Amino acid sequence: MEFSAKQIAEYIQGVIVGDENATVHTFAKIEEGIPGALSFLSNPKYTHYIYDTQSSIVLVNKDFEPEHEIKATLIKVDNAYESLAKLMTLYEMSQPKKQGIDPLASIASNAKIGKDVYIGPFACIEEGAIIGDNTYIHPHVTVGCNAKVGNNTILYPHVTIYHDCRIGNNCILHAGSVVGADGFGFAPSPEGYEKIPQIGIAILEDDVEIGANTCIDRATMGATIIHKGTKLDNLVQIAHNVEVGSHTVMASQAGVAGSAKIGEWCMFGGQVGVAGHIKVGDHVTVGAQSGIPGNTKSGSTLMGYPAIDPKQFARSAAIYKKLPDMYTELGRLQKEIEELKKQLNN
After folding, report:
1. Is 184 in contact with 147 (CB distance < 8 Å)?
2. Do 261 and 202 share a structural domain?
3. CA gap 294, 272 in Å, rounded
4. Do 206 and 231 touch, CB atoms closer than 8 A?
5. 103 by DSSP, 3-state: which?
6. In which domain, by residue range, is 335 found?
7. Do 221 and 147 contact (CB within 8 A), yes or no?
8. Which one, out of 14, 45, 298, 330, has a CA that is 20 to 30 A from the CA of 20?
9. Which residues are tagged catalytic?
10. CA 312 centroid distance within chain
11. Is the per-residue pLDDT at 315 higher than 90?
């Protein structure tokens, strides 16, 4: 499917600089541009590529002013990256999608299946499960007994939704993710560790996306809740009875221990760890590999372990590198002091 610069500019409310009849049928990074491709420029580090790119159309910010001649047609917009996202969403929506239930799928007789649903081969929909309209279930997905999946949701291969859990509308669960496995609950005893039954559920509200192999455990009692609009990367662990506020994002390998409460619009870098039974406020930003051992105020920006102000962490890190030399110097000074004491005593 081809789109002209004029059509694209009208859709994203941009201004054309060049040939309004230039057409594209694919996307490409600006440094890998080919004829017929649409690229974008938002990071100044990539500006030099725009003068040699072979892409037919390039999205740029309105304040971009070229220093040399550019062969490509430009479309100036308020935010090139956001405009690209809109176009890629439109492109994805235009792709044909499968519908219907594959004969190799296993669906319980009392499961409720909505309209225009696709269920792929070897998917299993168990007793009492409910699947909403326009939902897309890839092969080898399991939706457990009495679980509910909303409308316009995508479950990629090998996603597992345990019994009684609830997935909202417009959610995306990537391959291998698990919602509703038992929380890590064990009581120590003289004979070892006695398992504590996990009788709660896990709930994903609308517009949530979770990455491949991410796990969201069911609650011991009550519910583990991922609120509306939250995005979790691959390999994220959310423990039992955790509550993650709306529109929070977590990068790969972040982990949240049991019963922690995370606020709205937080941003966690990769491998951030959050201790259990604490509260993290709204709009908190945490750098990669940081550890949060206690309650955190809203609006904080933190880094390190334990997580502290990033400037303090940077100064501490600079000192840490000098510790071996400082240790050697301290030893030398101690020897000098001991020698001076001996001389004074004599």
Report:
1. no
2. yes
3. 13
4. no
5. coil
6. 320-346
7. no
8. 45
9. 240
10. 27
11. no
Q: Please report how the helices 5-12 and 80-94 are oriented relative to each other, as an axis angle in degrees rounded to 10.
A: 110
Tracing tokens 């420029």 back to the chain, one arrives at 41
- The reported pTM is 0.85
State the amino acid at position 206 in one-letter form: D
Helix (H) or strand (E) holding 333: helix 310-345
Closest to 152 measured CA to CA, from 196, 92, 202: 92
Q: What are phi and psi of 288, to 5 degrees?
A: -60, 145
CATH of residue 166's domain is 2.160.10.10
Domain identity same for 234 and 106: yes
**From residue 50, how far is each of 18, 62, 78 by CA, in Å?**
14, 15, 18
Q: Please report, for residues 185, 186, 256, the alpha-carbon distance to residue 274 in angstroms, rounded to integers and kept in the order given.
A: 17, 20, 5
- Cβ–Cβ < 8 Å for 268, 249: yes
The pLDDT tens digits of the residues spanning 59-117 come to 999 999 999 899 999 999 999 999 999 999 888 877 788 889 999 999 999 999 999 99
- Whether 314 is covered by a domain: the verdict is no
Same domain, 167 and 63: no
